[in-house]
Each structure stands twice: as structure tokens, then as C-alpha cells.
Amino acid sequence: MSVLIRGGRLLDPANGVDRIDDLLVADGKIVAIGAGLQGDQVVEAGGKVVAPGFIDIHVHLRVPGQEYKEDIRTGTAAAVRGGFTGVVCMPNTKPVIDNVPVVSYVVNLAARDGLCRVWPTGAITKGSKGDELAEIGDMFEAGIVAVTDDGRPVDDSERMRQAMIYAKQFDLLVMDHCEDKALSAGGAMHYGKVSSELGLKGIASASEEVHVARDILLSLETGARVHIQHISSRRSVELLRWGKAMGAKVSAEATPHHFTLTDQIVADMNYSTNTKMNPPLREEADREAIIAAMVDGTIDIIATDHAPHHIDEKDVEYQQALFGITGLETSVGLTLDRLVRPGILSLEQMILMMSTRPAKLVNVKPPALVEGAEADITILDLEKSWTVQVDEMESRSKNSPFIGWTLTGAPHATVVGGKLRMLEMKVVAE
Amino acid sequence: MAGLKRKDILGLKDLSVDELDLILNTADTLKDIATRPIKKVPTLRGKSLVTLFYENSTRTAKSFELAGKYLSADVINVSVSSSSVQKGETLKDTARNLEAMGVDAVVMRHSMGGAPQILSRYLKASVINAGDGMHEHPSQGLLDMLTIRQKKGSFKGLKVAIIGDSYHSRVARSNIYGLTKYGAEVWLAGPATMLPQGYEEYGVKVTTKVDEALEGADVVNVLRLQLERQERGLFPSIAEYHRLWGVNERRLKLAKPDALLMHPGPMNRGVELSTAIADGNQSVILEQVTNGVAVRMALLYLLLGGGESA
Amino acid sequence: MIEPKALLMDAAQMNRALSRIAHEIIERNKGIESVALVGIRRRGVPLAQRLAERLQEFEGRTVPVGILDITLYRDDLTELSSVPLIHKSEVNFKLPGTVVVLVDDVLYTGRTVRAALDALLDIGRPSVIQLAVLIDRGHRELPIRADYVGKNVPTSKREVVEVHLTEVDGDEFVALYDLP
């Protein structure tokens, strides 16, 4: 069955595509791009933007072992609803993804249940304990696309250095959750005026910056590729600029919550634990620095750090609540509403940050709007006004601070491997 | 008709000057009940009050208990060691259980900031915060203010020096919010590792030099040094703390001759303040305790005295 | 200004009634040696003070005057939508051995006096308690009666009796109104 995407503005900056045309998909591939094409199933895209499929390289699918929070089915449903054709999942599961059987389990489950593509990552160290190296080479053969101990930093710098050298053999990206645990110990939110007023222990910016600096220096030392996850502070951004200027192979991601919210929201939402994540929301100056870095390319991509948690884990005292919020279903809306519409970020930049570059970082063939390419396509509706509603969310967990927000700009349709998986923010039944 | 148009007292930050006046005036009026022969009025007869203490405290818990009993309410006390909380019951479930038992008010002390907010969301009953972590301790702030008002008449322009670990102090925070609303000049003095951020915006002066804070002060409020902080690297030794920041006779003389000496208790004699001044004639520490019962009675009366629609 | 339905007492009538009550207190208690007056807030207080002045004039003796705030003892607090302001009671004389004459402006259901009795008894134990009111308007809901009455006025429950005293209201009269 062929799918015709009709009349949309095709936009794929990496391949120099920017024109209004029809696009025909069949047998999982883009078979034709042109005017007046015919197809079995038609998706009207007039007035909409047709982009190469979006990929989120920082998602917690919670498989194996934590399916009460999210599983492959619900997580990928959330992803396609959010406009994503692929996600890269994190290994901090139960057990940790640090060996071949677990990698294979995830790969097979994803093939069976996934509504979009799922690429697993493997842990850097066994059990992510920060000690012995995990079987990175074997896991690479089994299908991981990057390594990370995400959830935790790698405390020991020598271990990190060796891991980077080892991972480099397979050209595997080393993703790091930058946090000096001694500096952040016991903290529940950003260390600043708001934490002082609310009587909550704070996590100083320096706890992230110390490791950002370390990782950049190690990357210079080893020539390995390192990726700074969820960057949150303005000084981290400055360090990143310096690192890139020095020629380090360092990349970085920013999350939508870090470019839309600040620590003030913890007070404004009266201690709601949907404002609690690690690294925490920081000050307005940090938020502005992140946006500036996204615009000038210092920050390479947008990734959500989608972290579903069960209500019993969140509906407790702020200090006790687990860190993390969901993000797959709001990322595109927030980016369009807060950055693209006000003219801060161009659509082209958005597409590079959400599709082309994330794919390249994990050595996945970037989706493209060219004949013969895999049909992984994201269609955006820049004018659609919608409100984030809990009961429309596909994710099994609803820990999001954006519930109730009204946004202009939404994902309109998601095509994965030629199949229409989402239309008008509803997952398409099979 | 008076009455607070709110269900809970979670902190002083959000109370208006009118509300603070109402509470202080009511406390002043109720104060006599605790000193006359028949220490009872029937006002809250038939109302039930639970004190829910996740952190140990004898004095605040007892103060609330007496306040409730003087007003003829039924009072029961739940402390962490003797309740199902130990078995891992969540705060939310504890709240719901209390509600199902028909409790009218819960007075809670907890070690984490923001905990009373959770309780207040799940309870139709009134919630009074008896101290949540480092965040607020409204009844302490109020009794401190009542004591100052009784002795000094008003707050405007008074120099109030709060000495000690104000970073970790909910007493300091509540005092700051309450006093600054009335135009008092608040100073915080203590070791640099124990001073909070961001209060300059409230007009509060922050210094590591305790003599500077004490100079010409009308009120000296000395905070308890929590000795566990020593292990955490915030200060090196009690001896050094006492030498550099302890309030003794020489230091107290820097304040006005009629300055009040206050302390939320319990005192570490010889650490944050010397015995001589703790027992001296400027000390109003015991009046604070008396005022504590009065303030707590006032809060209970104002929250529970009326009907369901209150 | 709503017009009253009837003027029950003017200033002169009120004065004469208070003088008469003062004489009755003296007569009933065979002198005022052990007598004290306690005014029930709000308007009972100036009335008690005026009675004290008259007793002073007639017997040449100062009678102690106390103030009683009965808010904390009301039986209808739960029916109010917000709690009333409370004020201090001031009874600065010994109660044992004392004849306390409670003074109020209007006696109606009797509940205020009931609350006043409880409030007074929580302060101490007078040997005798008597009640003086300017107006008794009937419709008792409790077994309470006044010992001294300025004027008996039959009323219906749809009417309101208002006492104006110079000290509180700036003018002086007792009037009857229909309930709005």
C-alpha cells in the first residue's frame, strides 16, 4: 500500500531540499518526489512542513525491568505521537544493558512491539557502577549505537579516559551525564535563590561544569567523540565553546525543559515534583545562554531525556521524588512554539537539530527526503494550536510540567519505514 | 467578622500584614487563658486535632497540644517512631487515613521542605506547618514577632539581628518574611558556609561579622547551632564557632541596652550563646515559650473556630 | 437610613430606667458592699459603667466594673462563615464573695447570657449572679430570666430591637425595626 504525502513544503536542509511537492512512499521507501503523484493512502500536507524523520537520542524506555513506568509499546507510541521516527534508549534499566543478551532482548522486543525505530545504547561500565568496562565490543556487534552510564556520571576520570579510548575503536559515541556527585550530593533542585527560599538543598552549577570540562579535556587527549547530555548551565556552554574552538570532538544536547523553564517554576508550581529532574532547571541567564548556543550551533541537537516515572515515585515529598520528566510528546510543540515561531531558531536549524545531526552522532543513516531513501518522515503543522492534555498522552507515565500548556505548532504526522504511525497527534491503529 | 480566608497555615511568606495583625492580636487576647486558674474555654469543643511529627520535637509538639486542649479540642499525637509511617506509608496515604478518621486539623513537622503542601493538597482538614525542613516554621516566626511587639510596641525600623546558621534555619526564614512585611531591618550574621542566598532582595543585610549585625540592634535572635553540621564540613569546631560567632556579654553590649535576647530553643549553652546572657535580664526566652502557646491557640481558633464553610 | 417601626425609648426614658435599676440593685442587695457590675461586650459595657456612676452617686461607694467578651463561649460559632474577632475580658476583682450583676442591652433568646455565665464561671466563682438588662424582648430559648429590666417590649421574631448608646453609636435611643 502506497502513501502519498500531498502538497507539503518539503524541507531537508542537509540535502538542499526546500520546495512544495508531493512525495510518494511505497515498500518502506520514498519512491517518487514530484507534482501530481498518486497513492493509495493520502496524507494531505498542504500548508504543512514535511521533514526527514526526527530522532531523539536520549530516551528512557525503561526496558527491561521497569515496565511499570514505560515499555517499548507505550514509549514508541509516545515517540510517534511526538513526531519521532526513531529513538535511542538509555541503558539504566533493571538489569542494566551491559551485555549481549540484554541488548538482543531490547532489539528483538523493539522489532516486535516498536512503533518507531529503537536503537539501544550500552553501558560504559558493568552495571554502570563506574568500575570495570562493560563488553562494549560485543554489544556493538549486537546493535548498540553509543555507550553511556546515563543516570550516573563516570566518577573516576581514568576509567572515563580508558572507556573513551576503547569506545573509539568502534567509533561509538560516549554520552556523558555530567555530574560531580560530591558537589551535587543531596540536592533536589538548582542551588540558588529559589532553593534557598523554598528550603530545599541545591545542586550547584559547578557540579555539572566540572565534568563538562573534564570530558572536553579527555576528548582532546584521546581524540574520542564525547557527547554532553542535557546541558544546563551557561558556564557549561562557555566550556563547550572553548572545547570546540580547541578542536575537541565534543557535541552537546539541550532538552526542551532547559530551554523553556527556569528554577522559578518550582516555586510557581508550589513544589510540584514535575519540576524535578537532573540536571535541574537553572536560572534565566542559563536558559538564555542555552538558546544562544543552540542558535550559533555550539549545542548540536535537541534531545528530551524522556524519563517516565510512576505516580507513586513522584507524588511524594520533593526531596524524596525521583528525578525526571517525560518529554517525547511535547518536544516538537515546545520547539515550534517557543523558538521557531518567535524567529529565534529557523525551521532548518530545528530539522538539523532534531533529525540529521542526532542520526549522525549515533552513526545511523540520517533520514532524507530523496528518492530511494528509507521513508522515515515527520510532518509538522506550524499553525496548530493545542493544549497538552493528560488523557491524550500515550506515555504510561504522566510526569510532565507542561500539562495544561497551550502551544502553537505540533507534529502532524509520523511515517516510519513507509507506514503511517501517527496522524493529527493520534497514534494510527494497526 | 474576621477570620483568615484560608484553610492552612503553611508559612509566613504568603500572609498579608492584615492576616499577621489578626493572628497577633488574637494571640494577645488568648494569652490570658493559659495563665488563669481555669485554663479552658469551650470554643473548639468537638474539634479534633492531630499533631503529626516526622521529626522529634518535644517543645513544639507539646505547645500545640496544650493550645488545642486549652481550647477544648481533642488532641492526639503521632510521632514517627510510633506510627505506620515507619512501615513505609507515604505522606499521601497518611493524610488520607487521617481524613477518613474525620480529623479537623493536622499540625505537621517534617524534615523536608514542601511536605505540608502535599498534605494540604490531600486533606480537606486544615494543615498547620510546625516546621518543614529548612523552609518555614510559621508559628515560631509568629511567636517571635508577638514577643517583640509586646516589648517594643511595633516593628517598623527595628534592627533585628538573627545570629547563627540561617542557611538551614526555617525559624530565620519565617522571621524574615514576617518582619520585613512590617518594615523591620533584618540582619543575618554567621559563618559564610551558613548564610542563605537571595534574601538581599527582601532588604535583609547579610554579613559574616557578628559584631556588625549586633551594633545598635533592638532584637538579638540567636539560632541553635545544629552540631551535626560540624561533620558536614560547615564549620571546624564548636570552640571556633563560639569564639567567632557566639553571642556573649561583650557582644550583647554592642546592641542597645534594652535590646531583647531571643532564642527558639533548645539552647546549646556556651555554644551559640553564653549562659550569663541566656539567664540575664534582657532574655525573653521564656516569654517566647508562653507566647508560643498563645500563638498556636490563635491559629487553631482562626482556622477551626468557625463552621464548615470557613 | 431606614425608618424605625417604633421608637421604644428616648434618651430621657433610658436615663430614668437606669436610675431605677440602680435603686433596685441597692434595694435587692441591701446595699452595694459586695456588688460588682460586669458588662457583656459590647453595649453592656457602657451600660454597666453608667449604672456604676449612679450607684456611686446614690450610695457614695465605688463599685468595680468588669468587661466580659463571650465570643469564645458562643454556641453558634460553627454556624458562622468566619470566626469573629475576639477581645479581652477584664475582670480584675475577686469573684468569691461577690454579687456580680451582669449587664447587657437586650435580653432575647438568652443564649448570650448563658455564654456569659460560662465565661464568668471559668474566671472564678461569684457567690451570686444577677442579670440587669435595658430591654427584655421575650422569645427565650433557654430558661433564663433577668432580675432587673429597663423596659419589657413584646416583639415578634421578624422584628429587630436596636439600642443606640452615645459611647458606641453617637446617639441615644431604643428603636424597633422590621427585619430587612
Fold blueprint:
The complex is a heterotrimer of chains A (430), B (310) and C (180).
Chain A lengths: L2 E10 L4 E10 L2 E6 L6 E4 L4 E4 L1 E6 L12 H10 L2 E6 L10 H14 L3 E4 L15 H7 L3 E3 L8 H12 L4 E4 L4 H4 L4 E2 L2 H6 L3 E2 L2 H17 L3 E3 L5 H12 L4 E5 L1 H5 L3 H5 L15 H12 L5 E2 L8 H4 L16 H10 L6 H15 L15 E11 L18 E11 L2 E5 L2 E2 L3
Parallel strand pairs in A: 1-4, 1-5, 6-7, 7-8, 9-10, 10-13, 11-12, 13-14, 14-15
Antiparallel strand pairs in A: 1-2, 2-3, 5-16, 16-17, 17-18, 18-19
Chain B lengths: L16 H14 L17 E6 L5 H12 L3 E6 L11 H10 L4 E6 L4 H8 L3 E7 L5 H15 L6 E5 L6 H12 L3 E5 L15 E3 L2 H5 L4 E4 L15 H8 L3 H4 L7 E3 L12 H4 L6 H20 L6
Parallel strand pairs in B: 1-2, 1-3, 3-4, 5-6, 5-8, 6-7, 8-9
Helix pairs in contact in B: 1-5, 1-11, 2-11, 3-4, 5-6, 5-11
Chain C lengths: L5 E5 H18 L6 E6 L3 H16 L5 E4 L30 E9 L3 H13 L4 E9 L11 E5 L6 E6 L1 H4 L3 E6 L2
Parallel strand pairs in C: 2-3, 2-4, 4-5, 5-6
Antiparallel strand pairs in C: 1-8, 7-8
Helix pairs in contact in C: 1-2
Could you explain how this protein is built, in words?
The complex is a heterotrimer of chains A (430), B (310) and C (180). With 430 residues, chain A is α/β, with parallel strands linked by helices. Chain A has helices at residues 72-81, 100-113, 136-142, 157-168, 181-184, 193-198, 206-222, 234-245, 256-260, 264-268, 284-295, 311-314, 331-340, 347-361, and strands spanning 3-12, 17-26, 29-34, 41-44, 49-52, 54-59, 84-89, 117-120, 146-148, 173-176, 189-190, 202-203, 226-228, 250-254, 301-302, 377-387, 406-416, 419-423, 426-427. Chain A has 14 helices and 19 strands. Chain A starts with a strand and ends with a strand. By secondary structure, chain B is an alpha/beta fold. Chain B is built from eleven helices and nine strands. In chain B, strands 7-6-5-8-9 form a five-stranded parallel β-sheet. Chain B has a four-stranded parallel β-sheet with strand order 2-1-3-4, with helices on both faces. In chain B, helix 6 (170-181) links the parallel strand 5 (159-163) and strand 6. The N and C termini of chain B lie close together (11 Å). The model of chain B has no long low-confidence stretch (mean pLDDT 91). Chain C is globular, with a radius of gyration of 16 Å. The mean pLDDT of chain C is 94. Chain C has helices at residues 11-28, 44-59, 111-123, 166-169, and strands at 6-10, 35-40, 65-68, 99-107, 128-136, 148-152, 159-164, 173-178. Chains in contact: A-B, B-C.
